[in-house]
């Protein structure tokens, strides 16, 4: 997804959930969107019950590869999934990424 497509979805927070599938160290070093759920790709299936089926899910990774894998799994389980997003791609296109501070 490009920045305009992502921004369009993020403008409707009541309709979307951002699911970041990266490792915690990547979230800290690279940042993410202002509000997101964090479930690593390998754990997505284990935590399906925590994901709403009545919202569009935007899966996120650095360059969208792992996000695509997670999105495919969710689509196969009946979830509404937008195309995968790369947070680094979004930032490269001028989008604002939130920096996460470790405790």
TrEMBL record:
<protein>
    <recommendedName>
        <fullName>Rhodanese domain-containing protein</fullName>
    </recommendedName>
</protein>
<dbReference type="InterPro" id="IPR001763">
    <property type="entry name" value="Rhodanese-like_dom"/>
</dbReference>
<dbReference type="InterPro" id="IPR036873">
    <property type="entry name" value="Rhodanese-like_dom_sf"/>
</dbReference>
<feature type="domain" description="Rhodanese">
    <location>
        <begin position="12"/>
        <end position="99"/>
    </location>
</feature>
């Amino acid at each position: 997804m490009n920045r305009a497509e992502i921004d369009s979805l993020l403008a409707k927070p009541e309709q979307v959930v951002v699911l970041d599938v990266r490792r915690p160290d990547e979230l800290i070093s690279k940042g993410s969107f202002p509000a997101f759920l964090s479930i690593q790709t390998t754990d997505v299936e284990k935590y399906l019950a925590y994901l709403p089926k009545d919202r569009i899910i935007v899966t996120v990774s650095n360059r969208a590869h792992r996000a695509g894998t997670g999105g495919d799994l969710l689509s196969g389980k009946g979830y509404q999934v937008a195309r995968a997003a790369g947070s680094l791609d979004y930032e490269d296109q001028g989008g604002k990424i939130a920096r996460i501070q470790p405790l």
